[in-house]
Amino acid sequence: MHFSLTKAFVVIALASSLASAANFSFTGSFAADDSVQLFSFTLASTDTVTLRTYSYAGGINGAGIVVPRGGFDPILSLFDNAGVLINENDDGFSNVPTDPVTGQQFDSYLFTKLAAGTYTVSITQFDNFANGPSLSNGFIRTGSSNFTSEFVCSNGRFCDITGDNRNPNWAFDVQGVTSATVVSTPEPGMAALVGVGMLLMVVRRCRIWDVFSRQ
Asked: Model confidence over 92-148: pLDDT tens digits?
């Protein structure tokens, strides 16, 4: 009898653990090449998480929605609760489908074991990588609104490295987490203004402190 009860408790605990893990699907579009979209997700316990995009080559996401091909070449960057860059992926290769036009596997894919906690993941367009080591350090292409024109496609924006015209759409799944939400992301110009404003506040406080310290 004791063995049966213990077995039942184990089954209940496993069921509870499985119930806490869920999949979340998001879609959207960029305003410019240097746009950044952030997401936050949490884990109640150590688990393996899958982060992947569907928009470059298209496919069926975790919500069962058919995502058309044609989106830009995405990069996923993963940050811990302190905002430290801990992983990133540009191309998913064999883990993602092949785009029928370019023949490339440019959707992004991260499969990683994470401890319980809160994490942030960003979507950017190649080659707008995170500067690191922290999210607060920003991304290398911030302020270059149509930097993919360097890849020479006729649209002059949302080009991939093959020179193919892409669109601003993205589709992103977070799989195996407790919760996931979209984080409001300021436009690059606004982020710069916020940064300047914060710097001026710090300078002003330092000057005030200097005045008091001399008295």
From this structure: 999 999 999 999 999 999 999 999 999 999 999 999 999 999 999 999 999 999 999
Element (H, E) at 118: strand 117-125
The torsion angle over the Cα atoms of residues 111, 115, 121 and 127, rounded to 10 degrees, is: -50
Listed in sequence order, the residues at least 6 apart from 7 whose beta carbon sits closer than 8 Å to its beta carbon are: none
108 backbone dihedrals φ, ψ, rounded to 5°: -100, 150
**3-state secondary structure (DSSP) of residue 87:** strand
How far, in Å, CA of 157 to CA of 58, rounded?
20
Tokens (6 digits) for 33: 């090449």
Chain centroid to CA 206: 36
If DSSP states are collapsed to H, E and C, what string results for 148-185? HHHHCCCCCCCECCCCCECECEEEEEEEEECEEEEECC
Residue ranges covered by each domain of the chain: 21-184, 187-215
Other C-beta atoms closer than 10 Å to the C-beta of 8 total 10
Q: How far apart are the first and last CA of the chain?
A: 79
pLDDT of residue 187: 52
Q: Cα angle vertex 69, ends 120, 97, to 5°?
A: 75
CATH 2.60.40.420 for the 21-184 domain, yes or no:
no
